[in-house]
């Protein structure tokens, strides 16, 4: 078993032990209850926003909780002296939380639409958005040591990340929106219910992967600055 595989299993156990999977189950039930109240004609329009909003909790804040827990227990600092590389630590977090997000969002999407959805762009959109929120979440939380310090500024960061959702709801279509990192996976999510052009596929995949690479690089630097060097 490789270090990455072992870390993925360890992270999954940590998430299970701290009730993350039970919380996801509750979120699925709540989402199904809320979605059942939305008229059918509005459902496909509102659904990409529902998924993006749900991912803020299931990735950004879940990762924040994991890192703060590891800081409080001292395990994050202890990992510095192990052979585990920073990239493997981050990759394990992204993989486990992305898998959980796919199961969670896939469950209530299946309930709402059954086969009436194109699953390829949906799963790509959820996976890429999860990766972006996980890495962004680490970049924010790693500089704080307690939930009290972290909670208020985290709201400002998530509000900034949610700007494409606001533009989508207001139907504001400008090239400026396409500069925002979270616009690219939102375009892919829209493709789950309506066809999109080839350039939108290229933009959605390429721009998302570009920002994943940039955030991964930034997270490794932040890990060194706020964990290793402290």
- Ends: how far apart? 31 Å
Compressed to H and E, one letter per element, the order equals: HHHHHHHHHH
What is the count of helical runs? 10
Tell me the total number of β-strands. 0
Percentage beta strand: under 5%
**Stretches with pLDDT under 50, minimum 5 residues:** none
Largest sheet, in brief, is: none
Secondary structure category: mainly alpha
Helix content: over 70%
- Rg is 18 Å
Q: How would you concisely characterize the structure shown here?
A:
The chain has 10 helices and no strands. With 230 residues, the protein is mostly helical.
Keywords:
230 residues, mainly alpha, globular
Please provide a written account of the structure:
This protein has helices at 3-17, 20-35, 40-73, 75-78, 86-113, 119-141, 147-161, 163-169, 183-190, 198-228. α3 runs antiparallel to α5 (86-113). The chain is mainly α. 33% of the residues are buried.
Topology:
Elements: H1 3-17, H2 20-35, H3 40-73, H4 75-78, H5 86-113, H6 119-141, H7 147-161, H8 163-169, H9 183-190, H10 198-228
